[in-house]
Write a structure and sequence with these properties.
mainly alpha
Protein backbone atom coordinates (compact mmCIF):
# COMPACT_ATOMS: atom_id res chain seq x y z
CA UNK A 1 0.00 0.00 0.00
CA UNK A 2 2.89 2.36 0.75
CA UNK A 3 4.34 1.83 -2.72
CA UNK A 4 1.00 2.63 -4.34
CA UNK A 5 0.74 5.81 -2.29
CA UNK A 6 4.24 6.90 -3.24
CA UNK A 7 3.47 6.29 -6.92
CA UNK A 8 0.28 8.33 -6.61
CA UNK A 9 2.13 11.19 -4.91
CA UNK A 10 4.84 11.11 -7.60
CA UNK A 11 2.25 11.29 -10.39
CA UNK A 12 0.39 14.03 -8.54
CA UNK A 13 3.57 16.10 -8.16
CA UNK A 14 4.30 15.74 -11.88
CA UNK A 15 0.73 16.78 -12.70
CA UNK A 16 1.10 19.88 -10.56
CA UNK A 17 4.34 20.80 -12.33
CA UNK A 18 2.69 20.41 -15.74
CA UNK A 19 -0.21 22.60 -14.63
CA UNK A 20 2.15 25.27 -13.37
CA UNK A 21 4.05 25.13 -16.66
CA UNK A 22 0.88 25.45 -18.76
CA UNK A 23 -0.44 28.33 -16.66
CA UNK A 24 2.97 29.98 -16.84
CA UNK A 25 3.04 29.65 -20.64
CA UNK A 26 -0.47 31.10 -20.85
CA UNK A 27 0.52 33.97 -18.58
CA UNK A 28 3.70 34.72 -20.55
CA UNK A 29 1.85 34.66 -23.87
CA UNK A 30 -0.78 37.06 -22.54
CA UNK A 31 1.35 39.81 -20.98
CA UNK A 32 1.48 38.25 -17.51
CA UNK A 33 -2.30 38.13 -17.11
CA UNK A 34 -3.26 35.59 -14.44
CA UNK A 35 -5.92 33.03 -15.23
CA UNK A 36 -7.94 30.66 -13.08
CA UNK A 37 -8.60 26.93 -13.61
CA UNK A 38 -11.80 27.49 -15.62
CA UNK A 39 -10.17 29.91 -18.02
CA UNK A 40 -7.13 27.65 -18.29
CA UNK A 41 -9.42 24.75 -19.20
CA UNK A 42 -11.13 26.88 -21.84
CA UNK A 43 -7.86 28.10 -23.32
CA UNK A 44 -6.39 24.61 -23.39
CA UNK A 45 -9.27 23.60 -25.66
CA UNK A 46 -8.88 26.59 -27.97
CA UNK A 47 -5.33 26.18 -29.21
CA UNK A 48 -1.66 26.53 -28.33
CA UNK A 49 -0.78 28.12 -24.99
CA UNK A 50 1.91 30.30 -26.59
CA UNK A 51 -0.43 31.76 -29.22
CA UNK A 52 -1.12 35.41 -28.26
CA UNK A 53 -4.41 35.27 -30.18
CA UNK A 54 -5.66 32.46 -27.96
CA UNK A 55 -7.81 34.43 -25.51
CA UNK A 56 -10.86 33.46 -23.50
CA UNK A 57 -14.20 35.13 -24.11
CA UNK A 58 -17.48 34.03 -22.57
CA UNK A 59 -19.14 34.98 -25.88
CA UNK A 60 -17.23 32.29 -27.79
CA UNK A 61 -19.42 29.54 -29.20
CA UNK A 62 -18.64 25.85 -29.73
CA UNK A 63 -16.86 26.58 -33.02
CA UNK A 64 -14.08 28.40 -31.12
CA UNK A 65 -13.04 25.20 -29.33
CA UNK A 66 -11.13 22.22 -30.66
CA UNK A 67 -13.49 19.88 -28.82
CA UNK A 68 -17.25 20.59 -28.77
CA UNK A 69 -17.60 18.45 -25.60
CA UNK A 70 -15.36 20.90 -23.72
CA UNK A 71 -17.70 23.75 -24.65
CA UNK A 72 -20.78 21.77 -23.53
CA UNK A 73 -19.14 20.95 -20.19
CA UNK A 74 -18.25 24.61 -19.66
CA UNK A 75 -21.87 25.61 -20.38
CA UNK A 76 -23.21 23.01 -17.93
CA UNK A 77 -20.79 24.11 -15.21
CA UNK A 78 -21.58 27.80 -15.79
CA UNK A 79 -25.35 27.20 -15.64
CA UNK A 80 -25.04 25.20 -12.41
CA UNK A 81 -22.72 27.80 -10.87
CA UNK A 82 -25.11 30.62 -11.77
CA UNK A 83 -27.99 28.65 -10.27
CA UNK A 84 -26.06 28.53 -7.00
CA UNK A 85 -24.17 31.88 -6.97
CA UNK A 86 -26.53 34.14 -8.94
CA UNK A 87 -27.00 35.18 -12.57
CA UNK A 88 -24.00 37.51 -12.65
CA UNK A 89 -21.52 34.81 -11.56
CA UNK A 90 -18.47 34.70 -13.86
CA UNK A 91 -16.59 31.40 -13.60
CA UNK A 92 -13.50 32.94 -15.21
CA UNK A 93 -13.17 35.30 -12.23
CA UNK A 94 -13.77 32.81 -9.39
CA UNK A 95 -12.06 29.59 -8.31
CA UNK A 96 -13.76 26.39 -9.42
CA UNK A 97 -16.60 25.26 -7.16
CA UNK A 98 -15.64 21.62 -6.65
CA UNK A 99 -19.04 20.74 -5.20
CA UNK A 100 -20.65 21.87 -8.45
CA UNK A 101 -18.04 19.92 -10.44
CA UNK A 102 -18.91 16.76 -8.53
CA UNK A 103 -22.63 17.31 -9.03
CA UNK A 104 -22.59 18.24 -12.71
CA UNK A 105 -20.14 15.49 -13.59
CA UNK A 106 -21.77 12.80 -11.47
CA UNK A 107 -18.57 12.35 -9.48
CA UNK A 108 -15.33 11.30 -11.11
CA UNK A 109 -16.31 9.71 -14.41
CA UNK A 110 -13.58 7.35 -15.60
CA UNK A 111 -11.35 8.65 -12.82
CA UNK A 112 -11.50 12.28 -13.97
CA UNK A 113 -13.36 15.37 -12.78
CA UNK A 114 -15.91 17.02 -15.06
CA UNK A 115 -13.57 19.82 -16.17
CA UNK A 116 -10.01 20.91 -15.37
CA UNK A 117 -9.15 17.53 -13.86
CA UNK A 118 -5.40 18.12 -13.59
CA UNK A 119 -5.83 21.54 -12.01
CA UNK A 120 -7.82 20.24 -9.04
CA UNK A 121 -6.34 19.00 -5.79
CA UNK A 122 -8.31 15.80 -5.12
CA UNK A 123 -7.89 16.25 -1.37
CA UNK A 124 -10.16 19.31 -1.55
CA UNK A 125 -13.04 17.61 -3.39
CA UNK A 126 -15.84 15.65 -1.80
CA UNK A 127 -16.62 12.29 -3.35
CA UNK A 128 -20.01 11.69 -4.93
CA UNK A 129 -20.92 9.48 -1.97
CA UNK A 130 -20.10 12.33 0.46
CA UNK A 131 -22.14 14.79 -1.62
CA UNK A 132 -25.14 12.45 -1.66
CA UNK A 133 -24.80 11.93 2.10
CA UNK A 134 -24.81 15.70 2.68
CA UNK A 135 -27.85 16.05 0.39
CA UNK A 136 -29.81 13.70 2.61
CA UNK A 137 -29.42 16.16 5.50
CA UNK A 138 -29.70 19.43 3.52
CA UNK A 139 -31.27 20.54 0.30
CA UNK A 140 -29.08 21.66 -2.58
CA UNK A 141 -29.88 23.97 -5.45
CA UNK A 142 -27.73 21.96 -7.91
CA UNK A 143 -28.99 18.40 -8.47
CA UNK A 144 -26.65 15.46 -8.96
Amino acid sequence: MGTLLSIYLFIYSISLRVIILVFSLQSQAHDGQLINEYEGYALSHKGRATDPDNVYSSADGPEAYTNPNAYEKMVQYTEAARMRHGPTYDPAQQPLDTDILTRTGGGKQHGRYFIAHSAINPATVLTLRQVRRSDSTTSSDVPI
